[in-house]
Design goal:
Blueprint: E1 5-9, H1 21-34, E2 41-47, H2 53-65, E3 71-75, H3 82-92, E4 100-102, H4 110-137
Parallel strand pairs: 2-3, 3-4
Antiparallel strand pairs: 1-2
Helix pairs in contact: 1-2, 2-3, 3-4
Length: 138
């Protein structure tokens, strides 16, 4: 792979990071801090990204706070480590705008699959509760 991180913004702008892990670690933490404030980011695509558990948690929290991202693609990102998936989904489940999540080529096992399923279940219950409470008000 020639890059680790690809972001697609309006106008197909792309931002690339190097494959040197040390450089990416500091850049990625800065990216996670700025992600909740991004108003024009529609698609976030990570390819072959290897992170420490703390960084996966930071990404999950950042995605949970962002209100414009519609698509998240995490391909070949070593998410078959249960702790990584747990930390990512914990923050991720707070997001209401993401319409698609692509976890292709992560060799996800049943354990990680259940973590994703629980996030989807949480989102569905949250939406049902919002619809139900809106129905009561009208």
């Amino acid at each position: 792979m020639s890059h680790i991180l690809k972001t697609k913004m309006e106008g197909n702008d792309r931002k690339l990071l190097s494959q040197e892990l040390k450089v990416n670690f500091s850049m990625f933490d800065s990216l996670s801090k700025g992600l909740p404030k991004q108003n024009n980011l529609l698609t976030l695509h990570f390819i072959n990204l290897k992170l420490a558990p703390r960084s996966w948690g930071n990404l999950g929290n950042a995605l949970g706070e962002n209100k414009t991202i519609l698509n998240v693609l995490l391909n070949v990102c070593n998410l078959n480590v249960h702790k990584h998936m747990q930390l990512l989904m914990k923050g991720f489940q707070k997001n209401d705008t993401i319409q698609s999540l692509d976890l292709t080529d992560n060799e996800i096992t049943d354990i990680e699959g259940m973590t994703v399923l629980n996030m989807i279940k949480f989102q569905a219950e949250k939406r049902d509760n919002e619809i139900w409470s809106c129905g009561l008000r009208n």
